Amino acid sequence: MKKINITKADVTAVATRVEDFSSYIRDARVSVDSRPSAIKVIDCVLSLRTSYDKTVVPRLKTFGSTHPDIQQTSELATLIASYPTPYKFIQQELNFNSERKARILESVVRYVCKIVEENPTVSEEKALKQWAIRAKPQECYSLKIKGFKLAGFQYLRMLFGADTTKPDVHIIRFLSDTLNRKVSAIESLLLLEAASARVGLPVRAVDSFIWKRGARGRRDAPEKNIVRLAPDVAAAFSTEKAVNEALRAVMKETNKEK
Fold first, then answer.
1. Angle value at C-alpha 19, between 14 and 20, nearest 5 degrees
2. 77, 78, 76: which is closest to 68 by C-alpha?
3. pLDDT tens digits for 179-201?
């Protein structure tokens, strides 16, 4: 993986943007994902470039209610192997018509099972959490699972307990808009980790907030301190960042006069 250097100026810009909504995150409850590892793996693969609420969530619920006995990833591997092909499994059990995702799911399940097998003295939950915290983003490239890139690998780590971010389209868009330039996936990851640390927030919580605003609009974001701008003001300051920068400048001048 090519080494990426992020500048202090970029980290500061992102940290300033994150600080704008930091109160929402600090006030929010930190939820623990207690779902079985088998469900988490399916979640990780199905959610790749797919509408999460409309497509992934109902399929996870149906699979969980149909197969309450499938808890561990090894049990999921056995169920997949009972079908003629992974594609038949994903069609029948998940009502999903994608040979590509069937192939990715089989490969990711095999990878996760290997992690568990290499740690026989601890529970599956503990083995996967230890892996998630210890793993490095660049390891995704050594897996050579076609279609399973950095965002998918990072999401898998997050599902099993790592405090990190998945540089999906919503995260990349947020950072690109913040810096007014195109930002790569790995650069997005490094910037959001550094900026979150700067403002003292869990990266995972920042990632979740940005994802919800991008994927679901603002309906999941707390509607606090809303100020309706006049049309002429809104035209001049069309983004949240522009409004905050203008107000900070006014505050700075006001403080000088005191």
1. 100
2. 76
3. 999 999 999 999 999 999 999 99
pTM over 0.90: no
The letter for the amino acid at 177 is D
No. of H helices and E strands in the chain? 15, 0
Alpha carbon distances (Å) from 57 to 60, 94, 103, 124: 5, 11, 20, 24
**What's the number of CA atoms in the CB half-sphere (13 Å) around residue 38?**
18
Contact 111/140 with Cβ under 8 angstroms? no
Distances (CA, A) of 158 to 105, 111, 133, 141, 165: 17, 16, 9, 17, 7
> For residues 138 and 141, what is the distance between their CA atoms, to the nearest angstrom?
6
pLDDT at 224 over 70: no
**Which residue matches tokens 């499938």?**
70
Domain ranges of the chain: 8-28+165-220, 37-159, 227-258
| Residues 250, 231: Cα–Cα separation, whole Å | 20
Interval 29-49: pLDDT, tens: 667 789 999 999 999 999 999
Say how many C-beta atoms besides its own lie within 10 A of residue 31's C-beta. Answer: 8
Cα–Cα nearest to 40, from 16, 76, 14 = 76
Q: Using the CB atoms, write b or e for 64-97: b if 16+ within 10 Å.
A: beebeebbbbbbbbebbeeeeebbebbbebbebe
Angle separating helix axes 150-159 and 185-199, nearest 10 degrees: 40
